[in-house]
Amino acid sequence: MALRLNVIGIVVADMPRSLAFYRRLGLDVPEAEDKNPHVEHALPGGMKIAWDTVETIHSFDPGWAPPSGGARVALSFECDSPADVDRVHAELVAAGYASHKAPWDAFWGMRYAVVHDPDGNGVDLYAVLS
Question: What totals of helices (H) and strands (E) does the chain contain, helices first?
């Protein structure tokens, strides 16, 4: 049996707010999806990203609770250039999203920044330094 990772799922407290964040990162999720308790979006290469409200999760797992402590998983979005890392980070912060780490030149050769989505998940922004 061959396993294939093909869906990344995110549990959200507020679907419209979460989808608005990911639209700012370039995902073309129709605004009509804001009212749905489960949303899936196809990504290039065959992967999908899905969002479920807390209520949806509770419908089949009544004891579910958000994890406590630090995050263990982050989503990473590649930007076209180091300047784009700075621009996207600044746009997200100006829109009211929390910055975890302002842009910096990482020792591994990338311009990097980390913001939190509305549910506190780490979202990395990066571009290879020339």
Answer: 3, 7
